[in-house]
Amino acid sequence: MEQLKKSMIQRARRQYKQIYPCVPKRSLQECFTTYGDEVSFWFNTADKSTRLIVCKMPA
């Protein structure tokens, strides 16, 4: 699971360059939600938009 989270953060950084935790979170590691077999990564970008990346959990 940790590897999946790291890869999602890397993907977001490649795509958006500057990413930040959503308020009131203090770190990107706190910005994950698990629902069923999916992991969601919520974060903010430099243009002050909230973005979401969703991935399936590895089997």
Structural class: alpha+beta
Number of helices: 1
> Major sheet: size, sense and barrel closure?
4 strands, antiparallel
CA gyration radius, whole angstroms: 11 Å
Please outline what is shown here:
The protein has 59 residues and is of the alpha+beta class. Helices cover 25% and strands 36% of the residues.
Structural overview:
Strand 2 and strand 3 form a beta hairpin. The radius of gyration is 11 Å and the shape is globular. With 59 residues, the chain is α+β, with helices and mostly antiparallel strands. Strands 1, 2, 3 and 4 form a four-stranded antiparallel beta sheet that branches. The longest helix has 15 residues. The chain starts with a helix and ends with a strand.
Features:
59 residues, 4-stranded antiparallel β-sheet, 25% helix, 4 strands, 1 helix, alpha+beta
Give a topology summary.
Layout: H1 2-16, E1 19-20, E2 32-35, E3 38-45, E4 50-56
Antiparallel strand pairs: 1-3, 2-3, 3-4
